[in-house]
What we know:
Helix content is 22%, strand content 25%. The chain has helices spanning 65-71, 75-86, and strands at residues 2-6, 12-17, 31-35, 44-46, 49-51.
Amino acid sequence: MRYIIIDADGLITNAIDWDGESEWAPPEGCTAVQVDEGGEIGGTCIGGVYAPPPTPEPVPVVPTFEELVAQASTFAELKALVAAKIA
């Protein structure tokens, strides 16, 4: 059976397979809750209400220096492009 481990703040910190009978206990301050599905690590379970983990912000693609050189037709343009990407 699948169990999720929930800390005192309601954060799902782990998911395990456990028969529910063998000797085991969740870490101190945590609770084990049997689930059929869902309960992703990083999500929350507060008052029996599950919320998935937050979606991470996309990481912007930073052009390489070589790509900036290819975009610039003059040294002044290259300096401006580099300055804009550093800021």
